Amino acid sequence: xxxxxxxxxxxxxxxxxxxxxxxxxxxxxxxxxxxxxxxxxxxxxxxxxxxxxxxxxxxxxxxxxxxxxxxxxxxxxxxxxxxxxxxxxxxxxxxxxxxxxxxxxxxxxxxxxxxxxxxxxxxxxxxxxxxxxxxxxxxxxxxxxxxxxxxxxxxxxxxxxxxxxxxxxxxxxxxxxxxxxxxxxxxxxxxxxxxxxxxxxxxxxxxxxxxxxxxxxxxxxxxxxxxxxxxxxxxxxxxxxxxxxxxxxxxxxxxxxxxxxxxxxxxxxxxxxxxxxxxxxxxxxxxxxxxxxxxxxxxxxxxxxxxxxxxxxxxxxxxxxxxxxxxxxxxxxxxxxxxxxxxxxxxxxxxxxxxxxxxxxxxxxxxxxxxxxxxxxxxxxxxxxxxxxxxxxxxxxxxxxxxxxxxxxxxxxxxxxxxxxxxxxxxxxxxxxxxxxxxxxxxxx
Length: 445
Prior knowledge:
By secondary structure, this protein is an alpha+beta fold. It has eight helices and 21 strands. The strands form four sheets. Strands 2-11-14-13-12-15 form a six-stranded antiparallel beta barrel. The radius of gyration is 45 Å and the shape is elongated.
């Protein structure tokens, strides 16, 4: 009877210890809650070692403009009165391009012309002729006439003709050299030595033409100066003739003669001042640039108008002198019109400034682009250094620590750190001299 009682008590105790249904369900829910998933590891970028060409190039742009240009400037300070040309106009020798405010000078010139005429009349109405005065006037007239004849015979017209003949000869030589060069570069199988030889001949022909043109400009200027001297001598002869006539009729009063001479000299000085305030075209060509307009103030010897011969044209670029030091005359590159890659041709640097103090700081690049219009934008690419058939990686694949350069190579056994030796470095490629092989997979760190 005691054992069944103990068994019943144990059953009640076990039932009292069991949780009810809701507690059991809550505990079950807590036990089976889904854990928060962890983010997968980000996949790292890889690169493959490739074989190819690593080129360090310098790219810049220039304008397709006439090669032979002439900068014009006033010889005095002043305010611009008129500008008679604009960019693109064709001009002839002696044409007035612009002038300064010279109304006062022109008024002075008119007054001086009247003063000269009055002095000449007073000389005519002067004292009676004396034999000595007539004799002196005759000798003076003869002397001035001989000087005039001598100056006429010494006009350097032959120098001008010879200089022009040299320009024409140099132009023909340049056309022949250009044709030979174009023929050479138009055939892919032309030996490089032949191309270089013809390029040197072309550059020599271009320089010869430039020298001939400078000689012609110099000869023309000398001829013009001789003509002015001749005109002044003609004036002196005329003055001597007047003085003789007055001496024969009125005695040739020395004071009256001096008054005529002084009036003439004053007139000549005013004419020179007007000439210094006026720009005239020294050559037949086209207006490349005009930087002034009526009312502007200008300083003496500051370029205000640029003239040019229409042909030939070349690419003219303005770049920093520190970049210019990477280039050299005769360096061959590629030129093309902006946004027109089909116009790509070989080109060569023709001229560089020798120092940063040189007036002309432009880079001149010669190319054969006959269809290009003046003023077009030209993109120029010059190769500074190049390694062919070499291993390379992008710069972001390499790591540095101190003086050490290394990469992380992906292998079947895992990642391996490997030191490398680099060569030529550019913005998008780095030459690898040793440490890796073609096809190696590199993991970016």
